[in-house]
Amino acid sequence: SGDIMFQGVSSDNVQPAFDELNEMGFDMGGAGPAVRTSMSCVGAARCEQSCFDEARALRGMVNAYLDDMHRPALPYKFKFKFSGCPNDCVNSIQRADMAVIGTWRDNMQLDEPLAKQWFAKHGMDELVNDVISRCPTKAITLKEHGKVAKGGNISAVAVNDTHSMEVDNHNCVRCMHCINVMTGALATGNDKGVTILVGGKRTLKIGDTMGTVVVPFMKLEKDEDFEKIIELGGSMIDFFAENALEHERTGEMIERIGVVNFVEGIGLEVDPNMVTHPRTNPYVRMDDWDEEVAKVKQAQASAA
Ligand code: SF4
Ligand code: SF4
Fold first, then answer.
1. N or C: which end of the chain has fewer CB within 10 A?
2. Is 50 in the pocket of ligand 1 (CB under 6 A)?
3. 83 lines ligand 1 (CB under 6 A)
4. pLDDT tens digits, 148-202
């Protein structure tokens, strides 16, 4: 990160150069162990896959934590990145300490005239070999119109006079492949929001890490939603400042202290959707079981 970098300035001249550039109206910082200059994809400005207002989220975060960019005061760098959809054009999942990625939680949107237009141009081979069979979770099937399944999680669109594409939205993992290939005919859902991940980074103390989901879904539309995400960003910076070791990224800190301590430390509820796969170790500690069950039930009752 960094917008313009000046290298090779002698130590004595750093502050005078800093002052002079400030007087010209330039903001300085965004390097070293500090909050880095943040990035968002082009998003809603030009891209039909966008699921939230990336520029607003980015601007809000930068304005709120500008002081932390000016001077290096953290154990090491901290990066925010905002991608409008799971295509993740800014590589936030690999690179950002806090990655905000657009997603949706209802059914994908389908457009019959555009689906038929796509099929007329590309044909059955491309539909089957390049779209349907490449869905990683086999969520798409090709069926005769009369055999399309019914159900709240099913969406279907006719591609010609005899066949429809049927999408089982519960099994769609939002990989974006089919939407990228058939943009317009297939589109992201209407109930849009973001997923928040932490801890992506390149090799440092430990090897490369990808972001871990800490908020599976949150809406990002109203003023209070944007305030909430900015507040969450602040909690992450504060926790990192207080708990990371020298020259340690967020992903490494989490690896050292455990994701549960991190999630609780920044004030988030632990959610079963954060678990990648069920545990394989059959030895489970049962201490405080009843108290934990009561807590979960109470949280479920207050969310209902
Ligand atoms: S991440 Fe998604 S919304 Fe953003 S530019 Fe890429 S495809 Fe478009
Ligand atoms: S976006 Fe969903 S339905 Fe489409 S290919 Fe990916 S997982 Fe399958």
1. C
2. yes
3. yes
4. 998 899 999 999 999 999 999 999 999 999 999 999 999 999 999 999 999 999 9
